[in-house]
Write a structure and sequence with these properties.
This protein has one domain (2-121): 4'-phosphopantetheinyl transferase domain (Ribosomal Protein L22, Chain A, Alpha-Beta Complex), CATH 3.90.470.20. 40% of the residues lie in helices and 30% in strands. It contains five helices and five strands; from the N terminus they run E-H-H-H-H-E-E-H-E-E. The protein has helices at 12-18, 22-28, 31-39, 44-60, 89-98; strands spanning 2-11, 73-77, 83-87, 102-109, 113-121. The strands form two sheets. The protein has a three-stranded antiparallel β-sheet with strand order 1-5-4. A two-stranded antiparallel ribbon has the order 2-3. Strand 2 (73-77) and strand 3 (83-87) form a beta hairpin. Helix 1 crosses helix 4 (44-60).
């Protein structure tokens, strides 16, 4: 059963400009995400994709950012490069309040845009 859906799209140039501010990097991206980006030499497309995924998750939770922080939504990758979501703090509490079992995420980007969709799965049929 789907309990929430979120979608976000962002211009890569906005994130590329924001990445020039170290405060933005530390506020938005977890240490693990920063390591992932460092392996990609700070690739703005990848950074924009992560940003869009975090926004999509916050929308699927029905909170947006404010009630939850960027740091409470972490995008992680499996050995095949498939992204998934790790929630902590208030974001995890919100998922549990909703009865959600997991958050599924899909990320895509082209030169100028990055987009992501998040779905909260409540399990069952």
């Amino acid at each position: 059963m789907i309990l929430g859906i979120g979608l976000d799209i962002i211009e890569t140039a906005r994130v590329e400009k924001a990445l020039q501010n170290p405060v933005f990097l530390k506020k938005v991206y977890t240490e693990g995400e920063q390591e992932y980006l460092a392996k990609r030499k700070g690739n703005a497309q990848s950074a924009a994709g992560i940003f869009a995924a975090k926004e999509a998750v916050s929308k699927a939770l029905g909170t947006g950012f404010g009630p939850i922080s960027f740091q409470e939504v972490e995008i992680v990758w499996d050995e095949n490069g498939k992204p998934s979501v790790r929630l902590t703090g208030r974001a995890l509490m919100k998922l549990q309040e909703m009865g959600g079992k997991q958050v599924l995420v899909s990320i895509t980007h082209i030169k100028d845009l990055a987009a992501a969709q998040a779905v909260i799965d409540g399990g069952g049929r």
